[in-house]
Amino acid sequence: MNSRRSFLKQSSLVTAGTMLAPNFLHAFSNRNTHGFNGKRLIVIQLSGGNDGLNTIIPYRNDLYYQLRPSLSYQKREVLNLTTELGLNPGMSGLKEIFDRGDACIINNVGYPNPNRSHFRSMDIWHTGSDAENYWSTGWLGRYLDHECHDPLQYQAVEMDDSVSLAMRGDRHKGFSVSKPANMYNTVKRIKLNHYKETTNENLNYLYKTLADTQQSARYIYEKSKIYASKVSYPNTKFGKQMKSMAELIISGIESQVYYVSLTGFDTHARQKNQQQHLLKQYSDALLALSKDLKQHDQWDDTLIFTFSEFGRRVQENASRGTDHGAANNIFISGGKLKKAGIMNESADLANLDKGDLVHSIDFRSVYATLLDKWLKCDADKILKQSFERLRFV
Q1: Fewer Cβ atoms within 10 Å of its own Cβ: the N or the C terminal residue of the chain?
Q2: Under DSSP, is residue 114 helix (H, G, I), strand (E, B) or coil?
Q3: Is residue 64 part of a domain?
Q4: pLDDT at 247 over 90
Q5: In terms of residue numbers, what domain contains 53?
Q6: Backbone dihedral region for residue 49 (phi beyond 0: left; psi -120 to 50: alpha; all else: beta)
Q7: DSSP state of 100
Q8: What crossing angle do the helices spanning 2-18 and 201-224 adopt, rounded to 10°?
Q9: Distance CA 59, CA 78 (A)
Q10: Domains held by the chain: number
């Protein structure tokens, strides 16, 4: 009985990190390369509601300066994209990617009846539902459900300790891996030979799960040592996650989808420096990732989609920050874009909805394009309705 209690205690430590999904990587160690078409999608989440208006800056718009007397950036500060719009000065990395034709910026993206709650709006973006509907599966999780006919195919990796709702389906979900070495060192401490199989089906299932987890952890740890990046990434948690992701990709782990988050964008007060610092982290890490993948001929097979759960109010508040808003900009980057540059170039600051920018592109049109044109699957079935396809890929 004591050994069983010990077994269950140790197993809870492992399953908290692996989400009881060890067969993903174990399968790769014994598989033939079939099903993986070489195309991968990387999703980057800017958590907290990034202020899009100080990311893509309308530096010649008088209303921008009237509504943001202390938060606005002057023309001399921005990184010019067009004669009307410029990037936040912290985003020189994205500017370099943009200038070489590997980035598409889409403005005014959102959904009808926007919700200004972090949790609810993020759920809407994660699931792809209407504002009035509550779904329990994510858009990428349903992609796995629909495309994962063979359990060895079409898997997804989240560079964190847990799996986001976006990556959870009814039958399949992504696999969370924060630090391969830590995962391996945790699970290898469990001595499975101390525990004998019993007639208890639950214990037997758990035993098998832990055995597979150990093999998977060993596999990914060994695989992660194949390539150590020499590219300079930001020395931050996000920078390290991006570096680890590049190392897994270049080492040959075949995943169709990767997911990573950068937090801290809930900027109600003293926004300007905080947001610029975060956008620099994001932008510098994105540039490093692009260089890493280009050096190993992986950039053309990679598409990177960056979003936040909502934008922020156009008018600054009394604390030199901005409150929760609605429509926002998103970024698409990769080596094989059909249309780079800027879509929906002008934000209409004269016609706001309760102080918010009005969306003109439904975010699910972005999803439909990614699913249909890049991942080559039935987007309408996964999103449960049809949305316009865009022209960036």
Answers
A1: N
A2: coil
A3: yes
A4: yes
A5: 41-179+221-383
A6: left
A7: T
A8: 50
A9: 8
A10: 1
Q: At what angle do helices 201-224 and 237-251 cross, to 10 degrees?
A: 90
- pLDDT category, 11, cuts 50, 70, 90? very low
pLDDT tens-digit series, residues 278-287:
999 999 999 9
Averaged pLDDT of the chain: 87
216 vs 296, higher pLDDT: 296
Residue 12 inside a domain? The answer is no
Cα–Cα nearest to 218, from 367, 26, 2 = 26
Q: What span, in angstroms and rounded, lies between the C-alpha atoms of 325 and 53? A: 11
Please, which residues have CB within 8 angstroms of residue 22's CB and are 6 or more apart in sequence?
Answer: 209, 212, 213, 215, 216, 217
Q: Do the beta carbons of residue 109 and residue 356 sit within 8 Å?
A: no
Neighbouring residues of 203: CB distance < 8 A, sequence distance ≥ 6: 4, 7, 197
What CATH code is carried by the domain that includes residue 310?
A: 3.40.720.10
Label residue 367 by pLDDT band (50, 70, 90).
Answer: very high
**Ramachandran area for residue 19 (φ above 0: left; ψ -120 to 50: alpha; else beta):** left
Note the pLDDT tens digit of each residue in 322-343: 999 999 999 999 999 999 999 9
d(CA 182, CA 212): 17
User: Which amino acid would we find at residue 24?
Assistant: F
Cβ 274 vs Cβ 81: under 8 Å: no
Could you report the per-residue pLDDT of 25-65, keeping only the tens digit for each? 444 444 444 456 679 999 999 999 999 999 999 999 999 99
Supply the pLDDT for residue 225: 77
Which residues, including other chains, have CB under 8 Å from residue 81's CB and lie 6 or more apart? 56, 87, 95, 98, 105, 342
Residue 150 tokens, joined: 């063979």
Residue 29 counted as domain residue: no
